[in-house]
């Protein structure tokens, strides 16, 4: 207890959110922290029952691929379970360097740097490249790790309404009078909404106002563009994006993150980025798995896997739409593996999630602050390894659940 009599831990008691979560857990209604008991396959074992997995970021289905497992195993057997140190000191293996070289070749950039997680990659980029004198302009739906990086940098934060170019332009015109440099940071594919940023128009605005542009490709890499390099590739703006971020925790079936850009910027991050320097380097098995998955993405098989996951996304999206759900669409019509269903009300989203869980269908729930207040949604996502029969069976169950749910709780938002 401090001399003021205030206990800093007092806030953990009687915390409203904790109380709600505890009550939901007691009623077996909690959509979070559910236990997974098998690999991330299309049908999985979760808490003692089989559930169709429609809530994974394993978009290409590579987490159980024998070649990716072999990559992890070889790395584990060659370099051991952990490196017990920073990349700067004893944490760099030939695999880390190979992975950085292959990412740069994949992204078409001069260089790349690998972080232990994607969250750290965003902290590492923003916390290092921005200072208190600078301005950072972010989309209001950007991932939390981007916001954390901005807060760490103490740069002036100017958010703009999700995907609204006029609001971005307003922020840019205001930033002209700010003292330092300006960076725009957007997700290529937004993690909850699954929609794609209008990157060409954003790059035009960045150029017009002399701002730098960074794109988080966590959900686009391995899925969009001919090489799977993400939304920047698909929309033809790779050369106009100054820095690209990605993660291994989605299509690349592992854990870790990267930044890809000019040698000048990447070299600077290698010696200055605290989120890179002051943490243990990614474990060999994670690096070996990411490298093996990246090689599959870059092989002839990559485009087939990407086509399959997007075909599944279209099928799933059309199926949900046909059942009368309001499925969020990208304004530019681009389909991604993320298929969000709008519920609006947090409580209803939890109840609907539970009914689906009981029917053997696993999806994710996003409530405030992951989405704006009143914007609760079920975040569903498909993998390349789903087959049509599994998706159709899931749609049948979802349809039954919806009918029973609406009879009891009233109508869900319908298609516009
Ligand atoms: N950016 C986005 C858009 C994400 O969705 C995520 C993870 N959900 C991250 C960054 C962080 O990546 P990681 O899981 O590798 O920390």
Automatic annotation (TrEMBL):
Superkingdom of the source species: Bacteria
Keywords: Aminotransferase, Pyridoxal phosphate, Transferase
Cofactor(s) the protein needs: pyridoxal 5'-phosphate
Catalytic function, reaction form: 6-carboxyhexanoyl-[ACP] + L-alanine + H(+) = (8S)-8-amino-7-oxononanoate + holo-[ACP] + CO2
Domain Aminotransferase class I/classII large: 52-398
EC annotation from Swiss-Prot or TrEMBL: 2.3.1.47
EC primary class: transferase
Single Gene Ontology MF annotation: transaminase activity
Family annotation (InterPro entries): Aminotrans_II_pyridoxalP_BS, Aminotransferase_I/II_large, AON_synthase_class-II, PyrdxlP-dep_Trfase, PyrdxlP-dep_Trfase_major, PyrdxlP-dep_Trfase_small
Transmembrane segments: none
Family of this protein: Belongs to the class-II pyridoxal-phosphate-dependent aminotransferase family.
Protein name per the record: 8-amino-7-oxononanoate synthase
Protein species of origin: Svornostia abyssi
């Amino acid at each position: 207890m401090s001399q003021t009599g205030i206990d800093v831990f007092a806030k953990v008691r009687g915390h409203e959110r904790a109380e709600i979560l505890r009550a939901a857990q007691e009623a077996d209604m909690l959509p979070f922290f559910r236990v997974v008991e098998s690999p991330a396959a299309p049908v999985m074992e979760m808490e003692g029952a089989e559930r169709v997995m429609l809530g994974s970021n394993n978009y290409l289905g590579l987490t159980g691929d024998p070649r990716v497992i072999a990559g992890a195993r070889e790395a584990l057997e060659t370099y051991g379970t952990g490196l017990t140190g920073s990349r700067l000191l004893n944490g760099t293996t030939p695999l880390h360097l190979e992975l950085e070289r292959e990412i740069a070749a994949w992204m078409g950039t001069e260089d790349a740097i690998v972080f232990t997680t994607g969250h750290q990659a965003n902290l590492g980029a923003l916390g290092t490249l921005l200072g208190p004198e600078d301005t950072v302009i972010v989309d209001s739906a950007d991932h939390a790790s981007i916001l954390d990086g901005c807060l760490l940098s103490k740069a002036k934060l100017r958010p703009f309404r999700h995907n609204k170019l006029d609001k971005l332009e307003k922020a840019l015109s205001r930033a002209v009078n700010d003292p330092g440099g300006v960076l725009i940071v957007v997700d290529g594919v937004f993690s909850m909404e699954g929609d794609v940023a209008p990157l060409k128009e954003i790059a035009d605005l960045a150029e017009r106002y002399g701002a730098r542009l960074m794109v988080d490709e966590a959900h686009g890499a391995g899925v969009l563009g001919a090489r799977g390099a993400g939304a920047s590739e698909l929309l033809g703006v790779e050369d106009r994006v100054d820095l690209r971020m990605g993660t291994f925790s989605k299509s690349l079936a592992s854990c870790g993150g990267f930044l890809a850009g000019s040698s000048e910027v990447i070299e600077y991050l290698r010696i200055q980025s605290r989120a890179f320097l002051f943490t243990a380097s990614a474990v060999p098995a994670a690096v070996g798995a990411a490298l093996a998955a990246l090689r599959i993405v870059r092989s002839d098989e990559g485009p087939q896997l990407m086509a399959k996951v997007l075909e599944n996304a279209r099928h799933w999206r059309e199926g949900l739409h046909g059942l009368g759900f309001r499925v969020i669409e990208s304004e530019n019509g681009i389909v991604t593996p993320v298929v969000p269903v709008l519920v609006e009300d947090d409580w209803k989203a939890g109840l609907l999630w539970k009914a689906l869980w009981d029917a053997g269908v696993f999806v994710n729930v996003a409530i405030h602050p992951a989405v704006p207040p009143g914007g609760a949604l079920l975040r569903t996502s498909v993998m390349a390894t789903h087959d049509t029969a599994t998706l159709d069976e899931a749609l049948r169950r979802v349809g039954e659940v919806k009918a029973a749910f609406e009879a009891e709780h009233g109508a869900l938002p319908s298609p516009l």
